[in-house]
Each structure stands twice: as structure tokens, then as C-alpha cells.
Amino acid sequence: MLKLKLDQAGKRFQYEWIFRKLTISLTPCQKLAIMGSNGSGKSTLIKCIGGQMPLSEGSIHYQIGDTPILATEIYRHLSISAPYLDLPEEFTLVEFLHFHFKFKNLSPGLSISEAIKIMYLEKSKEKAIQNFSSGMKQRLKLGLCFLSSSPLLLLDEPTSNLDERGVNWYLDLVESYGQDKTIIVGSNDPREFPFCKDRLGIENFK
Questions:
Q1: Residue 132 φ/ψ, nearest 5 degrees
Q2: Which residue, 5, 172, 143, is CA-closest to 79?
């Protein structure tokens, strides 16, 4: 169970502040939506939380149980789905999943073949990822997040490239595999975060 706290966090590029003086605490299994218009800083905040980008001011603290987690080690405890993350397209689906789950544990009780079924990719398990449609790639990114045992999920525009059926599939994933995880969703589409009781408007922290 993971907790995190941002304390007076801020990020700027040159002289422009993307956000600043942001203080918020998330308890285990909390669901938070980061809202804002395109270009407002949602993705930047998610990258900072995920340890991909340093803050310009303030701090982020992570804790699992009573044990503090260093920012340099937080990647071991999270999974992320975002449009700017690339998949290794030369791998087949089966090859990639075996590779990926050397570094992340599958959710308890699941096998790789069962994960493929959940992602509705059974007919493409021997296909190179470079030949997947954009929707298939998005289902793969989301499946990797929800079907890993990571306690923290960072979802940036999670339904991009998904049709209505795909959106419903994503919401079913949240219901079935996201209840015991802390989830942060960066989005300006209400369909992507109806399960988030807590909302943060990034533009309020300029």
C-alpha cells in the first residue's frame, strides 16, 4: 500500500512556471484526477510524480507501509501508461510480455496467457507490436499497468486511441484490477476518471 505527498512542489522550464506551491497527500488506494486544458502541465506533473523529471522546488515523499521509498527507487513500485511512452515494436507480443514481466510481477493469480486474453489480444500474440493498430497498442499499455502488481498507477490520457467499447473495457479494468492501487489520471475527458473522487485542477497552481 503506497502513500505519497507533494510538499510545495513546483516545476518550471526556463522562466515559465508549469505549476508551483502544490501540496497534496494521497493515501493508499486513493484515486485522483489531474485536470486541465491541453498544455496546462498535466503530463509534466505526472512525470515528476513518476520520477522521470525532477522538481524545480519543493519535494515528493513516497512510503510503503512504514518504509520511505527514495525517489530514485519509485520506478520499482509504479506502472505508467502515456502517449509519449514507446513500446519495443520489434518484439512480438509474447516476447515483450515475457521480457516485461522479468522486471515487474504479474498480479497474483494471473499468467501471461490470461493477461493476453484480458487485453483481447489472443489472435495477435505472435504478431510484432509494430503491426498493432493504435487501439491495440493502447490496450497493451493499459494492460501492462493494471495487470502488474504495482501499487501506484499513473495514467496519462488513458483512453486515447480507444473507441467506446475500448473505453468501457478500460473502466472494467479499473473495477477489476485497480481497487487496491493508488491511481492518478491526467485528463480533460470526464469519461476517463468517473471513479476518481478527488480532483486537482493543475491551472490553479500557476
A1: -75, 150
A2: 143
Rounded to a whole number of angstroms, the CA Rg of the chain reads 17
**How does pLDDT run across 43-64, given as a tens digit for each residue?**
999 999 999 999 999 999 999 9
Which residues have C-beta within 8 Å of that of residue 175, sequence separation ≥ 6?
195
Work out the angle at residue 3's Cα, subtended by the Cα atoms of residues 37 and 7, and round it to the nearest 5 degrees: 60
Task: Give the list of residues 6+ apart from residue 94 with CB closer than 8 angstroms, or none.
Answer: 112, 116, 125, 126
CA distance 32 to 27: 10
* pLDDT tens digits, 94-109: 999 999 999 899 999 9
Structural domains of the chain, count: 1
Specify if 205 maps to a domain.
Answer: no
Q: Measured over all CA atoms, what is the biggest interatomic distance in the chain, rounded to whole angstroms?
A: 50
In a domain, 8, yes or no: yes
* CATH code for the domain in which residue 41 is found: 3.40.50.300
Cell of 80: 505508467
CA 149 to chain centre: 13
3-state class of 15 per DSSP? Answer: coil
Q: Which of 165, 143, 161 is nearest to 153 (CA)?
A: 143
Q: Domain of residue 125: give its range.
A: 2-196
